[in-house]
Structures are given as C-alpha cells and as structure tokens.
Automatic annotation (TrEMBL):
InterPro entries: DNA-dir_RNA_pol_su2, DNA-dir_RNAP_su2_dom, DNA-dir_RNAP_su2_hyb_sf, RNA_pol_bsu_CS, RNA_pol_bsu_protrusion, RNA_pol_Rpb2_2, RNA_pol_Rpb2_2_sf, RNA_pol_Rpb2_3. This is DNA-directed RNA polymerase subunit beta. One of its GO terms (cellular component) is DNA-directed RNA polymerase complex. It comes from Papaver atlanticum. One of its GO terms (biological process) is DNA-templated transcription. Residues 771-1143 form the DNA-directed RNA polymerase subunit 2 hybrid-binding domain.
Length: 1247
C-alpha cells in the first residue's frame, strides 16, 4: 500500500480505533501508565496487545481491522529476555538500519525526489506566459497586434549522454550520442549532466482592439481574438548535473566496474567532484517569540513615538521570507496621550506591509464585531493585571489613531492609507486583496486570520509574563535541513526565470510587424540553465533563499578524496547559516537538541524525511476551523497544528495522540510522521515536512516482541511491527530514554528500575562516523578526540579508491599496505560486510575507514631524540615497507583543437599545440616528438613534462618546479565538451617515512619523526620483539590520552588470544577484563615487559610498556614542506621576497625568529637574513643637506653629451654625495613620506 493511500485512510482508521469499546480502557488511562516497567515485562506473562496487528483488505485500504495473530502475536507463556539476547538484537537492528538507509542516502533520496517530482512542480508553478508585442505605447488600444501564449507541460529527463560530433551514413540527420559515465566526465573535464526536455506549447494570435463610446473612460473595450498558429513540441531547455548513484545515473545499482568505496551523492562538474553541504535553515510556518534589543536605532526610527521594544512574536511562512512582507506583533512603550492608560504603559502594535498598525484596528478590519469578541479570541487571563492593562492601553491607542475604528469600513480605510504611504506599497489595488494575499496566506477567510491573530497575541502574552520561553534559534526543533533537492530547486528557479524573461524579450521583436514567428526552441536558450547551474557549482555561490539578486557561499564544496573517511565526512557535513567571521553567539555551542542527531565533535546529519502527506486529520476527533466568529466551545481545548498550520481543536488530546502513535507503530501512517503533545500549552503538533532529523529508538513497551521474531528481518519490518520507531526532536522531549541496555535492568539503591519508554540502540551512535570508530574515545580528553575526528582521521593516508587506473586526480596519495586494527567498534561492524560465520565475530569491519597500520609501540625515552612530540622509528621496519606511500601528482594542459580553431579563428589569439621543441626554460630529453614523456621515464626538477609551442614561436611548455620529481605513471590525451584538446601526465613518487614526517595514533597523539634508529640498537624482549615506534612517556599525562594505553593493552590481549574484541566508545571492556586477559596469557597485568638494551645486551632495570597500537601516517611530509632559496622572485613594490612556496618565495622571518638570533648574538646571520638576502639596495645621500640625491641624466657645461649620475636637487650640486647600502623598504618609506610633505634627513659617517 502506498504512503498516499495510508494517509487517505488515516481518518477512517482513527475513527474505528476511537469507537472501539476495548480501546477506551487503554486510551483513558493516565499517560504515565504508558511507561512500562521492564522488570514486569520480563518476568510476568504479557497481556495481549490489541494494536499488535492490523489486517487490510485486498485493495490496500484500511477498511476493516481485525486483531489477528501474526509472527509477532503474543502468547500467554512467560518470556525471559537476557542482556546477551538484547545486545545481539540491538546489533542486528543497527546493521539493518545502515543497510536500509546508508550514510549518504539523505542526499541521494533528496535528489531523486527532486528529479521525480520537484522539476515537474517547478514548471507547473509557471502560469501561462502572455507575450505582448513591443508596440508604441502611444498607439495602445488601436489596431491589430500579434500576441503569443507560452505554456510549459511535461518534463522529461534523459540519462547522461554526450555528443561525439560525428554522423553516421545510415541517418545523416541524426546526431550520434554516446553514454556518458562519471569516469568520462573526470577524464575529459566535462560535466556529468543530463538533457532536460520540456513539452512547450506556443499559441500565436491576433488581438484587435476597437474603440467604443465608453473606451475613453476606460469602462469598456471590445477585443476580437483570432488564432494564427499553434505549435507544441519537446524542447531541450538545458542540462542538469546528475548526482552519482542517483536514479538517473548509469552507476545506479552497479556492483562491479566501479570503486567499491564510492557511495555516490556528489556531482562531477567540469571534471571536478562537487558535493552539497546540508544547510541549516530556520523552520517556517511557526510562531517565533524573541526578545529584541532595546538599543536598536533602526527599529526606534521605524517605531517613531512608540519607543523601545520588549517582546516580539512573528509568523514566518514562505511568502513572508522577504523582510518587507513579514508580519509580527510587538509590545512597545505607549505614546504619550491624555488617556491615563497610556501613561507609562505598553501597547500592542502590528508590523504589516512595511508600516506599524494599532492591533485593535486590524482585528476590526478582519470582521470582529466587539471588544469582547476579540478578548475571547485571545483567551485573555483576566486575573493577570499586566495583560489586561496592555489590552486597555491598546484600545485607547487605537481610538487616538482612528475615530470610529470599530466599523469595518473605517478600519479598512485606515489600513489602506497606511499601506499606500509605506516605503514599498503593494501592487494590489484594494486593501482586501492585500490582506488576503500577504496576511497569513495559508488561511482562508478573514475570520480564520483573526482567530490566528488572537492566538499570536496569546502566545506573546505567555512569553511576556514568563510562562513560555523565547524561541531558541539554535534548537533543532526550530531548524530544517536543506539538502540537494531543495538547493537545486532554488537555484534552478532563478535560471528558469532568467530563460523565461530572455524568451519574452526575443519573442516581442518578432511579434512586431510582418515578421514570421520562428520555432519555440529558437527563443528558449538552453545555455542559460546549463551554464547557470555549472557556474553555481564551480564558484559555490548559490541563490539566496529570500534576498533578491543576492548570493550565499558555502553551499557547494570540492569533494576531498584523501581517504574514504574524509570523503564520507564531507558528504555528511552540515552548515548553519551564521557568519563565521563574527562571534556567532550560541550557534558555536552545543545544544541539547543535538543529542543523538548531530555529533558534538563533528557534524554529520541523520535521516532526512520528505513525505507528500495531505491534511487528512479533520475527522480524527477534532473540530475543523471554519470562517466564522470565535466559538466559545473552543475554549479549554487543545489546538492541533500540522506542519505549523493551525487546522483545528481537539477535546481529548491524550486519546487522539495515543491513537496516532499506535497507528504509526502498526503501519497505519508512515513511520516518519512526528507527533508532539505539548501538555503545558495545550497544543498537539504533527510534522511531516522535509528536512527534519529523525533517529531510531527501541520501544520498551514492545520489547517482548523481540523473542517472537522468527527468521531474518529488516529495519522496515521492525518499524512496521512497532518494535523500533523514528523519533524527532520535539517528540523526544516527552520520551524517557535509557542510555543502554544495562540501564533497563539497573535501578537506584533499594529502588526498582526506572520506567523507560525508549532505549538507545548504542551510545556510540551519539557520535559521528569519524568519532565512533575511535577506540576508548570516552577515556580521552575531548580535545584529543576532536583532533582525531576532524583533523587526523581526514589527513591519514590510506587507499582512497579502488579504480585509480581510470582517475587522474590532481593530487592523490596511497598507502601501500593498509591494515585494519585489532580492535572493533559497533559502528565499524554496522558498516561492515558479512565475512565470518556468526560464531567468529559475525561481520568483517570495513577496512577503508581505518587508514593506517598496526605498529609495536614502546613507551620509553630514547637518547633524547623523542622529546616533546617527537618519535623514534625503526629503520628496518620502514625498509620492509611499513608506512610506505605512493605520491601521485597530475599535470594538465589544454590547447585548441586545430579544426575548431580554423573555423573560429581569432586574430588576437595565438594558437598553441603540443609538440617537442628546443626549450630555453627546461630540459626536453625525456620528451617524444608529440611533446609527452614516455611511460616510466624519471623526471626531476627542471625537466619539461608537457611540451607546448605557439604558432608565434613562444614556448608554453610546463616545467617541473624545484621540489617536484617522479616517474611517469600515466599519459592521457582527450578532448572536453568545448572542443579543446586536454593532456594529463601523472608523476608517481614512492615515499618512505623520513625525518620530519608526521604521524598520529587514533587518540590525537600526533608526533614527527625525530630519529630513524637502526634495528639492532632498539631494546628487545626475551621473545625477540623489537618496537617499531618509541614514544615519550610524558605524552600521556600532558595530552590526557589513557585510551591509547588501553588500546595497546587490549591489542596485546587480542593478539595473544586470537579473537577480536570490541573497544566501542561508552561500551568498552573494563580495566579488570583487560588485565586479567594479559595475566592469563603470562604477561604483566599492566602491560609492562622486561627488555634488553640493544647496544649492550643488558637487561633494563625498569619495565617498559609495550603493545600494538594503530598508527596513521598523515599527509604532512617534510618533502612537501622543504623551502629553500638564496635569492629569487621579489615583490615589485617592496622588492622583498614573495610569499608562497609554489612561487619560489622566501622563508618567513618574523619577530620571534629575530629575537632568537639576538639572544644568541648572531648579528651577522641577522644582518644576512633581514638585509643581504631580503631587500638589499643602494641610495645616494648628500652630505651637505642630508637629503636624498636622485640619479638623473643632466647636461654638463663643456661636455658634448649628457651624463648620468647622482645629483642633489636641494643643493643643485653633484658634490658631497655618497652612496650607502640600505634596505629598499627604507627608501620606499622616504619616498612615501616625501609625497605627503614630510622630509627625512640622513646623516652619514665614514667607516
């Protein structure tokens, strides 16, 4: 049964459930009785649950409900659940959850929904485009003019194809298109996109305007319309980038011939991989109460005499996103007046259409008949003098603003005058049209708007009196995530409007005179949408959600592929809409609503829900809102909101909510619906909108069904049976959630276990992917966990892809012998693949998320070479291949195609082509005649890697820089979609760890290699084990990482015992378990071992802690940071060395380096660094006037020609001038000061 059918029958099902006599007993109990005591469930026979099963008719409608037995039917036999059984079940549930949803599914599903429904809705929202002729306005209304109507119809998307540029002899008129794969787009610098075709109908007709007697007054005009031509055809309106692994991608469902690590969810634009960053946006369709700052001059100017603000409530919907169209109510200081209610009091005023209007006038303009009716609508607490005084002052303020405002006509007239005189008056003629369109446009009729306005006032009063808190912008209940579908829809809408305006502009020219109309595809420029989307992906600038012609950044980012964990983290990143340069306020601090949804150390996101649910709740025991006056029967009843819209009221909210939750747990409504009952404020809020974050929790009430499950099951089947459910942010506030299974069985001293409603699947799921795989993460300092999750894990070298032969990345690095760690974690198991039988640890963890090797690490000092964060490494281990990597860098060159260049030859452009030429900028010994090196050729700095020469003879070859070298791995010659020839040459360099290279454990214990010690000089155990790495003992207390010690001890026990054990955060084995394992295997309980000096052979006095630890080699290598120069490029203004190593710039020498040389007394070195090798220059100084002397060319009496030399313009003499050596910065400073009238004097002495 489809989701739509489920929602259609929600009303019928709830009515049947409500009318059942058996259900009334259950539904009328207290809500606390829903919290089940687990001990009673485990030890006592369970009762039959009438909501355990629902049978449906053959057509899929929930028309008849029978409580029949299924695989989960409960029996009368007692059921005993052990902690071991629950642990196994929780693991199976977690594995099935990731199998169903994956890690990147939220982005892929959002894109699929956009392709399937969003694009069509986008074109359906465009009304019929009426194109008027571009005639002379003075002749309007006279004569016969051609008009046109354009209508967009069905949208069709092809799979990615590209044009080969060739034509076959069988059908010369048919262009040949071939399949475009992501690998082709990467190699050829193309965009992986699909053609978008739209059925467009063009109707051209003549419209004759005839004058009548009443035409001059504008009251009547007779128009005759005659259709000239009609045309309907499919038009290619543009190309849309295709997300890899989406439904329209060729790789969807492909298991072979692709990278095994690639999960999709990204785009290929001009050969570069781009990924969307989920945007956190403020939730729409809900009320916002906030405390506005009193010292805001702009708001003071807007309010005029009303003074400062205290509280504000506003309603934000799609149409009110523009600040000019927002609607909000404020409590402000009352203006001065004769009425005693206004003296020192506060009044209510409403901001609407750019002007402030007294609130009481708005109520009467909406059809309210009396003050009492308004007060009843607001539901004022008359016992609270604060609210009563504000209402009395508001009435007096309205009387002062408009006399007889209680009459609807007078109130509307007053509002119309204010709106017309505002800064941005609307285009609508009548105030009724303005109110209907811009004031709560989701409501029908003025009375419904008045009722909702009264609710806003009540909401504001509750906050003003301290009974309701102001809304927190950083709370995730007030946020929604915008994913690929929503972001693409926003950007495409802007480009479609651009293409539409361009079409109208070109059609108007052909509607004039006798010009024939061309086909519709002539006017629709497909390059507008194609180039617009490509430009947005390339620059990362996206259309602003509501600001006209403004762009925002941070929506699209380049996908990094150093290792699979880094790529997955980039695809799961979220970004709040805050200014990173500013303070940010509370946005930089973790919020309790992030619990279980966003990692507090990184930012992945959970499951995204998008459902086309319709409002079918009006008959579920609530009264529908109609366009009538406030009903007294509504008083005291709970309000029902669906996606923020007030749709009705409810008598018995407990029964209503209970029915809906049971329906959700029994497939009556989809599991993504979120149901929140706010008892304190009398509201029932139901959400099914897109962008919410949900997470799975086990329902303790139905925990007894676990033992009745037979055979295999999926996560969806567990949702259908009501064993697990998806909980949103707001609904979770009412849940009593156990952190782990053990908390279900444990209670306080001499107290029974706590009654929980839900239970976490595993506490490690509170962390992100990069945090959840850290062993013993809960034992380390949070700063170190942050370093590992956000920096070291994404800088670790691993095996980034399984198809490197068909990729030409600009820079990639591969670890030769990656290993998986000895330990396991819950998340790594859930993301794993079946590899072992169940009695051998179940599944094999995915190795690509661990990028490193297992090294034997000893904690000891070694001749002073591992001080601070320095490491001593075993040279023999490195020579055997440990931490050996492959560094691949690709060089790309683009030249014009010869045939294409001849057809579009430009005089000012010099054509460049590949080829070998005698270059003056580098060596060409390794190049062939085509300008490319041979495969396997060894190139060093100064060699030409790609030879290119222009027709004019200019050498445009690409030369290797002073730090670049390697052997040629790959040469690729191809062409892009713009007709240009592209060449890519890849250089490979094998790198073994060297001094200065950076390493890190999985606990943030980073360090650089300080010494490569010989194997025979290392200490060794009586078993002959020699450590690979020696780390300083002081690293652990200073960095507070005992987790690494526990990992080493556990790893030693795993290696000796032969079985893999878990080191999952928050569920790690105890220290006693680890020490007992070591003791049983004949080792010291605390991991220490007796070792012998490798140089003398003597046994060391102290025991050395030693064990296997998972270490990562980071991409920070000394070879990439080598920077040296004597002299080189300088800045043209200051003549000091330029920055940037790639430009052969200088080494930074700052104040601290200067102070160090001064402290050591190295004045000569200081002089060389800051003067000789920096901006050495010479200048001439006049000893007589002590001013700067210029070097000029002047005439000398008696000489035949002019001479060039120093000359003092102040003394008008060339005598007494000396040449001195000064930094060029001094000379530049003198010239700058001299330009503003400040002259410096230079005194010189003979040395």
């Amino acid at each position: 049964m489809t989701d739509e059918a489920k929602y259609k029958d929600l009303t019928t099902m709830v009515e049947d459930l409500w009318s059942s006599d058996d259900n009334n007993e259950v539904l009328e109990t207290n809500v606390d009785e829903m919290e089940v005591d687990l001990s009673s469930l485990l030890d006592s026979p369970p009762k039959v649950d009438v909501f355990s099963s629902l049978k449906t008719s053959n057509d899929g409608d929930v028309s008849k409900h029978e409580y029949a037995s299924t695989s989960c039917t409960l029996t009368d036999e007692p059921i005993h659940l052990s902690e071991e059984l629950l642990n196994k079940f929780y693991k199976d549930v977690s594995v099935s959850f990731f199998e169903q949803y994956g890690l990147i599914n939220h982005q892929i599903e959002s894109y699929n929904q956009f392709v399937k429904h969003g694009i069509q809705k986008l074109f359906d929202s465009i009304p019929v485009i009426e194109v008027e002729p571009n005639y002379d306005p003075s002749k309007k209304g006279q004569g016969e003019w051609k008009h046109a109507n354009v209508t967009f119809g069905k949208v069709m998307l092809d799979k990615p194809m590209f044009w080969t540029g060739e034509k076959f002899t069988k059908d010369d008129n048919k262009e040949q298109y071939l399949k475009l794969l992501p690998k082709h787009a990467r190699l050829q610098n193309m965009t992986y996109s699909a053609r978008m075709r739209v059925c467009v109908k063009l109707e051209v007709y003549t419209q004759t305007s005839m004058k009548t007697d009443k035409f001059k007054s504008g009251e009547e005009q007779v128009v005759q319309k005659q259709v000239i031509s009609e045309e309907e055809r499919d038009v290619v309106i543009g190309r849309i980038p295709v997300m890899v692994k989406s439904n329209i991608c060729w790789l969807n469902g492909l298991e072979k011939n692709d990278c095994e690590f690639d999960q999709g969810g990204y785009f290929v634009v001009k050969g570069a991989e781009k990924a969307f960053i989920a945007q956190e946006q403020i939730c729409l369709n809900r009320l916002w109460v906030e405390s506005v700052e009193l010292q805001n001059p702009k708001k003071k100017k807007r309010l005029g005499v009303y003074g400062n603000l205290t509280r504000q409530v506003q309603y934000r919907s799609g149409i009110e996103l523009n600040k000019r169209r927002r609607v909000f109510i404020e409590i402000v200081n009352a203006p001065t007046g004769n009425d005693h209610y206004l003296h020192g009091g506060k009044v209510l005023t409403m901001y609407f259409m750019g002007c402030m209007i007294p609130l009481w006038i708005v109520f009467f303009a909406l059809g309210m008949s009396s003050d009492k009716e308004i007060v009843d609508t607001i539901e004022v607490d008359i016992s609270d003098s604060r609210t009563v005084n504000i209402l009395l002052a508001t009435i007096s303020d309205a009387e002062n603003a408009c006399q007889a405002f209680s009459k609807k006509g007078k109130a509307l007239k007053y509002m119309a005058e204010l709106v017309k005189s505002s800064k941005f008056p609307p285009a609508e003629k009548s105030i009724e049209e303005v109110i209907n369109r811009f004031l709560f446009s989701h409501l029908n009729g003025p009375k419904q708007k008045a009722v909702f306005l009264g609710y806003m006032v009540k909401y504001l009063f509750l906050s003003y009196t301290g009974r309701r808190k102001c809304e927190n912008r950083d709370d995730f209940r007030n946020k929604r995530l915008q994913l690929a579908g929503e972001l693409l829809e926003r950007e495409m809408r802007a480009h479609i409007n651009h293409a539409k305006n361009n079409m109208v502009k070109h059609m108007q020219k052909d509607l004039n005179g006798e010009r024939p109309m061309k086909p519709i595809d002539y006017y629709l420029d497909a390059s507008i949408i194609t180039n617009g989307l490509s430009r947005a992906f390339s620059t990362g600038l996206w259309t602003h959600p509501y600001k006209y012609k403004e762009k925002i950044s941070g929506v699209v980012a380049n996908l990094r592929r150093l290792n699979p964990l880094q790529m997955t983290s980039d695809l799961r990143e979220t970004r709040p809409q805050v200014d990173y340069a500013g303070k940010g306020g509370d946005a930089r601090f973790p919020n309790p609503s992030h619990w279980g949804k966003l990692c507090f150390l990184s930012t992945p996101d959970g499951e995204k829900c998008r459902l086309p649910l319709k409002d079918k709740l009006f008959n579920c025991g609530m009264k529908k809102l109609v366009d009538e006056a406030y009903s007294a029967s509504w008083k005291g009843k709970d309000k029902v909101f669906v996606n923020g819209d007030w749709v009705g009221v409810c008598d018995d909210s407990f029964s209503f909510v209970t029915n809906l939750k049971h329906s959700r747990r029994s497939k009556g409504i989809p599991p993504q619906v979120e149901i929140k009952w706010d008892r304190n404020h009398g509201e029932v809020r139901i959400f099914y909108d897109a962008g919410r974050i949900l997470r799975p929790l086990l329902i303790v009430e139905n925990i007894r069904k676990i033992k009745l499950l037979k055979g295999g099951y999926t996560f969806q089947s567990l949702l259908d049976e009501g064993i697990v459910e998806l909980i949103g942010v707001e609904e979770e506030e009412d849940c009593q959630t156990a952190w782990d299974i053990k908390y279900l069985f444990l209670g306080e001293k001499k107290q029974p276990p706590i009654k929980y409603t839900h239970c976490e699947l595993d506490l490690s799921f509170l962390l992100g992917l990069s945090c959840g795989i850290i062993p013993f993460a809960n034992h380390d300092h949070s700063k170190r966990v942050l370093y590992q999750s956000e920096k070291h894990s994404q800088q670790a070298l691993g095996f980034s892809t399984t198809n490197p032969n068909i990729r030409v990345d600009t820079l990639s690095q591969q670890l030769y012998y990656p290993q998986r760690p000895l330990f396991r974690t819950m998340i790594s198991d859930c993301l794993g693949i079946p590899a072992f039988p169940q009695d051998q640890n179940g599944a094999l963890a995915k190795p690509e998320y661990f990028n490193g090797q297992n090294a034997i690490v000893a904690v000891n000092v070694h001749h002073g070479y591992n001080q601070e964060d320095s490491l001593v490494m075993n040279r023999a281990s490195l020579e055997r291949g440990m931490f050996r990597t492959e560094h691949i860098r690709s060089y790309t060159a683009v030249v014009d195609n010869k045939e294409l260049f001849e057809t579009k030859r430009l005089k000012a452009k010099d054509r460049v082509d590949f080829g070998k030429t005698q270059s003056k900028i580098g060596r060409v010994d390794s190049l062939d005649d085509d300008g490319f090196p041979n495969i396997g050729a060894n190139l060093t700095n100064g060699d030409i890697i790609i030879g290119m020469q222009a027709e004019s003879g200019k050498d445009n070859s690409i030369k290797l820089k002073h730090t670049e070298k390697g052997s040629v791995r790959k040469v690729v010659l191809t062409a892009n979609d713009e007709g240009e020839n592209c060449a890519v040459v890849s250089l490979c360099q094998i790198r073994s760890p060297a001094l200065g290279d950076k390493f890190s454990s999985m606990h943030g214990q980073k360090g650089v290699v300080g010494l490569l010690e010989s194997h025979e000089n290392f200490p060794f155990t009586h078993q002959g084990i020699v450590p690979d790495i020696v780390i300083n003992p002081h690293a652990f207390p200073t960095r507070q990482t005992p987790g690494q010690l526990l990992e080493a001890a556990l790893g030693k026990g795993i290696a000796l015992g032969g079985s893999v054990r878990y080191a999952t955060p928050f569920s790690t084995p105890s220290i006693d378990e680890i020490t007992d394992q070591l003791h049983r295997d004949g080792f010291s309980r605390w991991g220490g071992e007796r070792v012998y000096n490798g140089q003398s052979g003597e046994m060391m006095r102290s025991m050395i802690f030693m064990g296997p630890t998972f270490y990562q080699r980071l991409n920070h290598m000394a070879e990439d940071k080598v920077k040296f120069r004597n002299t080189g490029p300088v800045h043209p203004l200051t003549r000091q060395p330029v920055a940037d190593r790639k430009r052969f710039g200088g080494v930074r020498f700052g104040e601290m380096e200067r102070d160090c040389l001064l402290a050591h007394g190295a004045s000569a070195n200081l002089h060389e660094r800051l003067f000789t090798l920096s901006d050495f220059s010479q200048m001439h100084v006049c000893n007589k006037c002590e001013n700067f002397a210029n070097v000029i060319q002047r005439s000398v009496h008696g000489a035949r020609s002019k001479i060039r030399g120093p000359y003092c313009r102040f003394c008008d003499s060339a005598e007494n001038i000396v040449r001195v050596n000064v930094p060029y910065g001094v000379k530049l400073l003198y010239q700058e000061l001299f330009s503003i009238g400040i002259c410096l004097k230079f005194g010189t002495e003979q040395c």
